[in-house]
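Before drawing any conclusions, I needed to go through one protein's amino acid sequence and its backbone structure tokens, quoted below without any editing.
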Amino acid sequence: MRALSGKVVGKVQGVGFRMYMFRQADRLGLHGWVSNNPNGDVDFYCEGSDVDLSFFIDLVKRGNDHSVVKSVEYQDVKPENLNTFTVI
């Protein structure tokens, strides 16, 4: 298992982006969380296989119909062995 922690920069608040990330993570069987950052970014943490995390990051970079993703920054972190994916 691998874990990533990161942030999404762009027009990603007030456009259903956290729910979009939740649906994609749920579909891929990932665990973790997503939350709005007061500075306008969206922060996230997710755990899963290399393949599923890579696909998830590609979907996050693409965004939903109402978002404008400027960048996705992430790094590998130690897995926390979570059991769900949560929208905070």
